[in-house]
Amino acid sequence: MFLRFFQNRFLLLIVIGMTVGIASEANHATAAEPKPAPDKTKEPIWHSHFGPWGNIEIHCTYLEAPDSLIAELPKPNSIPNWNFPGATVASLKQLFDKAALSSEVQARILDPKRMLTKNGVLSVFPPLSDLEAMTHEQRDVIYTELEKSQLNEFQRDPVIIIGGDLDDWLRESHLTNEQQQVIRKMTWHRGHALAFSDIRALLNHAQSDTEVFHICKTMTRTRTLIADLKIPESSDVKPLIKYWTGEGRSPDIEPILESTAERESISTIDITHLLPPMMRRRLFTYPTAERITRGRMPDCHWTSLNFFNSSPDDYYLDTRLASSHIIEHYAPVAAPYQFGDVLIIQDNTGQAIHSCVFIADDIVLTKNGENTLTPWILMWLDDVRDMYVRSSEWHVQGYREKITASTLTNNP
């Protein structure tokens, strides 16, 4: 995401390198109504498929990084640039022809005054007017090439509009109408995902420090699901207790389920309250500044492997040790998944690119990146896929912790 710009200057990065998994099937227990298309006149509400998790009502909201973090972050400059390692003017013309850029636009972009060659990298500085006038299709072609190089940080790690609903993503932002229109014109398709990479161009439309602040804050904007478990009056909660305690690994949620079922009407519990204590405290929050001083930030693997732990084991920040722990203490499982299963998402090459925790239905708990600007959130599994997988082929391999007496003791 856009956050990589900040990561490179503010935090340490890691490379995800776990190699696990085989293809698995969909997790639906029983068919239900598909997720409806959002109704622009009201807040969309979804209902889960029927399963051992019970009946879950789902809606969404948006989180942004705290003002205190945004204020401390270095802001990018407002000069758009594209970097092409090993490229020549001839190869760029071929790329621009493929993108159907007019000869006039190509001539302006490839003006020698707008190009720089250094250490084998050909950099161009496209005119702002031409950059903003590009079609989505033209941007798709050029940015797909740009994202291959880490030198193009905003194309390689763009802002992802989760779910692809740009209107919803912009609705409560503090951007001006002009700035919103710039974003609408300059999105592109990164695999299945709708992406935005042109923050440098967008900053040219800021008129004050306050507007720069709002632009940077909006670039951290991410959608999360809010899920509520509906418990009918006098229902038998034993199956729910079995499911939501993870076969006894998180027994402290039994009282809330039992007491809720005794109410004289249908009752609702935010499933945040059904998570193990450590994750219950972290969901919808951001890592604290204290974490920065330790040199590493929690990532997806740290989150997945610490899900049931009463206190976090930080050695999972070492991808090698995290992978070893999975192999030794988890067993591969296929769908249907259970609460707390670790899901490894693989691309079409079999490379493991992300891990998350299965909660219920198609809902997972995830931490998308090792930095202080990405919170712990709930997402649809397909939306997580869209963030990480470029092609139409993807696989999920589930892993379930082997339950032993010591497992139950360590996760009171």
Features:
412 residues; 2 domains; alpha+beta; 4-stranded antiparallel β-sheet
Structure overview:
The strands form 4 sheets. The chain has a 6-stranded antiparallel β-sheet with strand order 11-16-12-13-14-15. About 8% of the residues have low confidence. The protein contains 19 helices and 16 strands. The longest helix is centred in the middle third of the chain and has 11 residues. It has 412 residues and is of the alpha+beta class. The protein folds into 2 domains: 251 residues, no CATH class; 149 residues, no CATH class. A hairpin with a 2-residue loop joins strand 7 and strand 8.
Strand order of the largest sheet: 11-16-12-13-14-15
Question: Averaging pLDDT over every residue, what do you get?
Answer: 86
| Count of discrete alpha- or pi-helical segments spanning 4 or more residues | 19
Strand content: 15-25%
Assembly annotation:
single chain
Indicate the overall shape.
Answer: elongated
Poorly predicted spans = 6-34, 36-41
What does the largest sheet look like? 6 strands, antiparallel
The share of residues in helices is 25-40%
Global Rg? 23 Å
For the termini, the CA-CA separation is: 36 Å
Count of extended strands: 16
Overall domain count: 2
